[in-house]
Amino acid sequence: MPQIVMLGPSLSGKGGIASVVNIYRGTGFFERWGVTYLATHVDGSSARKLIVLVRALGAYLRWQLRGEVALLHVHVSSGASFWRKSLFVWLADLAQIPVVLHIHSGAFGEFYGSRCGRFRRYVIRRTLGVAATVITVSHALKKSIEYIDPSRRVVVVPNSVEVHSEVAALDNPRSTNIVLFLGKICAKKGAWDLLEAAACVKKHIPNVRVMFAGNGEMNELNTRAAALGIESAVDVRGWIEGRAKMQMMAECAVVVLPSYTEGLPMTVLEAMATGAPIVATKVGGIPDVVEDGVDGLLVEPGDIVGLAHALEQLLASSALRAKLSLAAKSKVVERFTPQRIIPTIEGLYRELGISRTTT
Known about the structure:
16 helices; alpha/beta; Rossmann fold; 16% strand
């Protein structure tokens, strides 16, 4: 029986795409639509990554040759992720199988314009041209794709987040001085800007603590914190997920994401779902979700003074934290739960002639 084949990274891996797809799977979406998921990438050695890719290609090709693929839904970022997935897109095109290309990378425009030569840009345009529909996670990313291929149909489908009732049941009160950073610790995510901002904040709020939960350049983080004289205010954790992550968000004073580029980060949606006040940068899909001064505070990327001021505002005012928290949770419930988002994808499937396998 023809099936929908969905491609993406390993669902046990770290990263936003895996989080998004796991939410789809958790709602019964795979069962309702007969989706078979193929992981084309895993964390680990180059050899392990290659083995996973070759196995996925082999499985997909067998299904296609047997006429068992009704639709190919491809979750893709930029860089190597795009080139890997392009192999599957071209195979689908040979068999005239409809393709939904679901682009998550806020840096896709930069990838196309600055990191690719003429031939690679041509390949990108040809790959986009194969897709029956391109999905982007933000309006900024939609504009980037339309610039690359003005003829392509592009639909914005934001990421979704579950609002867990367990959050309300957590007993620990919210901190008044802990700033939480979640994700990859590197310059692109604004980690070094946060350290500099924290040094400024510490002059006015001496008990501030910045908690880094993630992976990345840990040694560089420690070196920079020591150089700024704030190592005692920096708490470095490893990668966290599941209930531990939810609890940390529910207990901190502020969640901060000072990135230079983003698609639509799950960290922002998850923080809003737990009622954590947010400070983030005006990049990618973040302004689609966070309205400055209404349900979070936004600053320009690289604006260390502005970042420090926003953090000080929230740390100093419990009333402001409560106001943003309430508005953020309300917005998530109204606009970003799976029940709000997934029907858009189901509608796209129907337009392509795909029917549900269960009711």
